[in-house]
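User: What would this chain look like folded?
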Amino acid sequence: MATSTRRWTADLTRTVLGVLTMGLLVGASFWILKPFLPAIIWATMIVVATWPAMLGLERRLWNRRWLAAMAMTLGLVLVFVVPFSMAIGTIVSNIDDIGEFWRKLLEFRLPYAPDWVRELPGLGAAVADGWERFAGERLAQFSQHLKPYVGVVAKWFVAEVGGVGALLVQFLLTLVVAAVLYVTGESAAQKVIAFGWRLGGERGEEAVRLAGKAIRSVALGVVGTALIQSLLGGLGFAVAGVPYAGVLTAVMFVLALAQIGAVPVLVGGIVWLYYQGEIGWMAAMIAWAIVVGTMDNFVRPLLIKRGVDLPLLLILVGVIGGLVAFGLVGIFVGPVVLAVTYTLLDHWIVEGAQQPAALEQTRHQA
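Assistant: Here's the prediction, encoded as structure tokens.
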């Protein structure tokens, strides 16, 4: 009895020490990789979302993986680095024009509400009264009302984005990690699937595969919708003659990715057209902004449902909640976590409901 007790104590001690050692090693590894984790997560999300495209490109490039990986990496450079550099260059080269435009904008006085606004059914009178409160004020005076909110937004932006140099470093790290994953994608995927199987058997492997489907689904829905909205909004600006249409298109794309939408930028373009006296173009831009600003309500669900068969509300909550919790990368992390959790919980509930029925059937057969 004493021998078995000592053996049991030794086994328990060995197990506890082994778990503690593994926990310390995992924690230390994450601590060392902390500066690289954003780039690793972004690269993983991008590679998983674009993996089918990479395989198709590989078939067209004589089944040469290195050529396909190089082409995909160059594509990422064109999509991320080049537009960012062009936006910075445009701002720097037009800094005098931007300063003059800002000075004129601060001198702008909000006109009084037209009579037709007050005559609108429902909220017309309330909108007109609110409009009249600020009518006649210069924008510089009006901006005093927005200062508290601008400060909060500015602090959030600085905290999320940081300096331009740090952002470029993260871009470069993301490109390097993505290139490595494109080359060694199959072996990395097999290791992740094997890890899932080791944790939960068949259910763990299913969770890993579901995570990949959720990433592709969100990439197709969120990124695809943001791309469509920004391109259509930029097209409207270009046709209407709004300046810096290319830069504004990039801004709309980022805002649409962040689930804010392209509407704030479109409204800014409409205000500029009104200030320029282009009433006809302003009316056309209002109609175009309504189409572009509301299309995500039906385009995003259609694109997301093509990738994974999960409740749409779950995906949308994951996108918005992940954005708030983790920043831009949370757009992908949030839906993946909720999708895997929802699926595992659903299977656990179904299995629990099936067990009493199986016991009852066995009892009747006996």
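The CA atoms of residues 5 and 11 lie 10 Å apart. If you want, I can go into more detail on any region.
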